[in-house]
Design a protein that fits this description.
The structure holds two protein chains of two kinds. Chain A is built from 20 helices and twelve strands. Chain A is of the alpha/beta class. In chain A, helix 2 links the parallel strand 1 and strand 2. Chain A is globular, with a radius of gyration of 24 Å. Chain B is mainly alpha-helical. Chain B is built from 14 helices and two strands, in the order H-H-E-E-H-H-H-H-H-H-H-H-H-H-H-H. In chain B, helix 2 crosses helix 14, helix 9 runs antiparallel to helix 10 and helix 13 packs antiparallel against helix 14. The relative contact order of chain B is 0.12. The chains are: A alpha/beta, B mainly alpha. Chain A: Belongs to the bacterial solute-binding protein 1 family. Chain A: This is ABC transporter substrate-binding protein. Chain A: Keywords: Signal, Transport.
Chain lengths: 418, 303
């Protein structure tokens, strides 16, 4: 190889390093709204595509969808929003949205909200930032509850428990009958959070729960210790080895009638049931612990759409968001993905499965709606402290004092950082 | 030789570079140096700098002094386990996997039956990425649906990957499975280059097989030993993918690299804190790199 070709090669190489970023800077013309999607699973991906197609047909505009793997989308959201985000993107309600609103990375859509119809006040609250402005168009949600099989409850003569004492007694009875009372897996770190949320909201109320997650209450308070204590009392009835089991595997034990109950979200257990068994799936709301709080709060994570601060086609984005807030847009989606329920009260529920109908009842009867532990608190606190703490608790449930002191120390650090 | 001297003689003074030479040199040296600065030294120094700040990746960068390091050592429960696990990794690969690889290499080199078959079988896992090894480990070791528990049977299945006292050993075994093959192939190459005359001479002097190996063969393998040592250290310190594939490096599988990722890459974006972790990892690595370089340079002088 001559020196000249070598040099030429080096120049081309340097160009190859610089070129992609140059190209990226050039892209993004005026050809329609761009949509950042984290719906990488087959079922929701297809369902969203149907919804956008319906919009394109109606408005004669185009929606360009950029789908990214769900986990990657979540992990890169910071850099995504600061780089060249899409005009509209999918995200979650609650603190996880407020965090980015506070950082000035989202566009205020309060003007659109003034014309929205069919959303409850609870929904509006979950779409509102700390500054009182709205940032989210809610799309669907899925309540968490205690799932079980109708046939198992019928055959064994179990009653749905209303109170915590009945809940514990039922668990004891199931164990006697040779069942694992609670199917349980926490390998991914988040599924057990649902149980913590419910125990805390039932024992201490929604307001305490949210204040705790906002960093305003201390984790080594008697209230939080009581939550872990209640949980410890239930652990002997939980499937052992939860930290090594995914929630999918846990749900399968329920499907196989080896387990009696499980605390999960609406879309989760059904996926592990065969089509024939799916009608056998049922749920009841998490039982009451303190009568002062009853069963008021329901955990129902809301997914929806946000407009990025850097949106290029702002008018197009607002037009699309307005469409996505209509009940028709939700109907199109849910036709292909019946694992969630629509947020808009005008949505057509005639085609709902009995389970979906029951979920609607549960949510509409709720006095408060929580999102989920990792959506109601700071992302850094949830992912670097609480996941590990809960897994540690499941390994060593007896050292509650040490656990909550550990959490509190780290909480102070993280919440004081900004 | 006479040729150059003749040319030199014709040109007085030191050799001058033409303008063109200078440009070529500048480009050929300059591009790598620039890339090195931009891609390696830049980020390294930036990490060190950021480790003294509390930056969340969005807002202003605020000076925090040594607070991150203080937090790291005193209030971050995952830190010390991660350090311990990294050292355990190093000890396990260095003291078990590497010698075992050497043993296999010697056995195969002696020409046991079907040695080609063993060679390729043992080398196969090296082709797989550690993330894939992690997935395979899950298929075998999963508590409810894993192959191993199905074979063992029994009423109380062992939680190979969920029990924090047990899972690190299981993952180490899986990592060894790959590392042993790697080391074996390196030693096999080294053994092939050992002069058979040396062994013959040792045999003539009446050395036993053991003596021959430890006194004659092993010393000639010194260059390979160095390579194996370096690879083992690198593999241990950058270990990441296998534990991340198994359970995101939590619940007993913490490693420094995982903690850096957890704090920086994820949604968390505690970039200052994560940078402090990265600096600790850098310092540990530097310790090994410097020791290695010092040894190498000393060896060079002695030779």
């Amino acid at each position: 190889m001559s020196r000249r070709t070598l040099l030429r090669g080096a120049a081309v190489g340097a160009g190859a390093v610089a070129l992609p970023s140059l190209l990226a800077a050039c892209s993004g013309g005026p050809s329609g709204v761009t949509m950042g999607s984290n719906a990488s699973d087959a079922v929701p991906k297809k369902a969203f595509a149907e919804a956008f197609k319906a919009y394109e047909k109606k408005s004669k505009k185009t929606v360009r969808v950029n789908t990214v793997n769900h986990e990657n989308f979540q992990e890169n959201i910071n850099r995504y929003l600061q780089g060249t985000p899409d005009d509209v993107f999918m995200w979650f309600a609650g603190n996880r949205m407020q965090y980015f609103a506070q950082k000035g990375l989202l566009s205020d859509i309060s003007d659109l909200w003034r014309d929205f119809d069919g959303f409850t006040d609870a929904l509006k609250k979950q779409s509102t930032g700390l500054d009182g402005k709205q940032y989210l168009v809610p799309y669907y949600y899925y309540p968490w509850a205690v799932f079980h099989r109708k046939s198992v409850f019928r055959d064994k003569g179990y009653d749905v428990p209303k109170t915590f004492d009945q809940y514990r007694a039922l668990a004891k009875q199931m164990q006697k009958d040779g069942l694992v009372p609670f199917a349980f897996g926490d390998k991914d770190g988040w599924p057990a959070m649902g149980t913590f949320d419910y125990l805390n909201m039932r024992a201490n109320g929604y307001d305490f729960h949210i204040a705790l997650l906002r960093g305003q209450k201390s984790w080594n308070s008697p209230q939080v210790k009581q939550v872990f204590d209640l949980w410890r009392g239930l652990l002997p009835y939980h499937q052992k080895g939860a930290n090594g089991r995914t929630w999918q595997e846990a749900a399968q034990t329920l499907a196989q009638k080896k387990a009696g109950m499980t605390v999960l979200g609406l879309p989760h257990p059904g996926q592990q049931f065969s089509a024939a068994d799916r009608e056998d799936l049922d749920f009841f709301p998490f039982p009451e612990i303190d009568p002062a709080h009853g069963q008021d709060a329901v955990e129902a994570p809301i997914d929806g759409f946000l407009m990025s601060k850097k949106a290029k086609d702002r008018e197009g984005a607002k037009d699309l968001l307005t469409y996505l807030a209509t009940p028709q847009a939700e109907d199109v989606y849910l036709k292909s993905d019946p694992n969630n329920i629509a947020v808009n009260s005008g949505a057509d529920t005639a085609a709902y499965t009995p389970l979906q109908k029951k979920a609607v009842q549960l949510v509409s009867g709720a006095k408060q709606i929580s999102q989920f532990l990792d959506r109601d608190t700071r992302p850094d606190f949830a992912s670097t402290v609480l996941i590990q703490a809960i897994q540690q608790f499941l390994n060593r449930p007896d050292d509650i004092d040490g656990l909550v002191n550990d959490i509190e120390r780290q909480k102070k650090q993280i919440f004081s950082a900004t | 030789m006479p040729n150059t001297r003749a040319r030199r003689a014709g040109r007085p003074g030191p050799r001058r570079h033409t303008r063109r030479d200078l440009i070529v040199l500048g480009v050929l040296l300059g591009i790598p140096i620039l890339l090195d600065l931009a891609l390696i030294w830049g980020p390294t120094l930036a990490s060190v700098g950021l480790s003294f700040t509390t930056w969340d990746g969005i807002g202003d960068i605020q000076w925090a002094g040594l607070k991150n390091y203080d937090n790291l050592f005193t209030t971050y429960p995952q830190f010390w386990p991660a350090v311990r696990h990294n050292l355990l990794w190093l000890a396990f690969l260095g003291l078990l996997a590497a010698p075992f690889g050497l043993l296999l290499a010697v056995l195969i080199d002696r020409g046991v039956r079907f040695s080609r078959f063993y060679q390729s079988t043992l080398y196969m896992p090296v082709v797989l990425s550690l993330a894939v090894v992690g997935f395979i480990a899950q298929l075998i070791l999963s508590r409810d649906q894993g192959a191993l528990n199905a074979v063992i049977g029994g009423r109380n299945p062992t939680d190979w990957l969920g029990n924090p006292q047990l899972n690190i050993w299981m993952v180490l075994l899986a990592a060894c499975w790959r590392h042993t093959g790697y080391v074996m192939i390196l030693y096999l190459a080294g053994l092939k280059s050992v002069d058979p005359g040396l062994k013959e001479a040792a045999a003539l002097d009446g050395a036993s097989a053991r003596q021959t190996f430890f006194r004659v063969v092993l010393p000639t393998l010194r260059p390979v030993n160095v390579i194996v040592g370096v690879i083992t250290v690198i593999e241990s310190l950058r270990a990441f993918d296998i534990v991340y594939a198994v359970n995101k490096g939590r619940n007993g599988l913490e490693l420094l690299s995982v903690l850096v990722t957890d704090n920086i890459i994820g949604e968390a974006s505690r970039i200052g804190f994560g940078s402090a972790l990265a600096v600790v990892l850098l310092l540990v690595s530097l310790g090994f790199i410097v020791t290695y370089l010092v040894q190498e340079l000393r060896g060079e002088q002695q030779r």
